[in-house]
Design brief:
With 111 residues, the chain is an alpha+beta fold. The protein has a domain of 69 residues: Roll (SH3 type barrels), CATH 2.30.30. The protein contains three helices and five strands; from the N terminus they run H-H-H-E-E-E-E-E. The protein has a five-stranded antiparallel sheet with strand order 4-3-2-1-5, covered by helices on one side. A hairpin with a 2-residue loop joins strand 3 and strand 4. The radius of gyration is 24 Å and the shape is elongated. The N and C termini lie far apart (69 Å). 11% of the residues are buried. This is YolD-like family protein.
């Protein structure tokens, strides 16, 4: 039991880690760090919807904060369309645009 194993000690070392194992460990840690989406109260939802409607009507720039499992993302632009039936907005900046689900927005404010 007390004998050391002979052979290639590099592969037998407990400190040696294959790249595949390292990436798997990193992915497992990221999975454990996932955040839960905050539950917004009615007042906060109304504020977000009001801000989005104001951007559409007055053509003012708005910043929306989108929930992501690892970190929130910010987008800045003009609301050019609102689909109430699918709860989506079209946010446009420069020559680009993106459809965003209103339920993914955790905060919106006028720039």
């Amino acid at each position: 039991m007390g004998e050391k194993l002979e052979g290639n000690r590099l592969w037998e070392s407990s400190r040696m880690m294959l790249p595949e194992h390292k990436s798997r460990i990193w992915n497992d840690k990221r999975e454990m760090l996932r955040r839960m989406k905050p539950v917004l109260n009615e007042q906060k939802l109304e504020e977000i919807e009001f801000t989005l409607a104001l951007s559409l009507r007055s053509h003012v720039r708005v910043t929306v904060v989108l929930f992501d499992a690892f970190e929130n993302k910010q987008l800045n632009g003009f609301v050019t369309s609102i689909h109430t039936h699918s709860r989506e907005i079209k946010l446009q900046w420069a020559e680009e645009w993106k459809w965003i689900d209103v339920d993914d927005i955790v905060e919106a404010y006028i720039v």
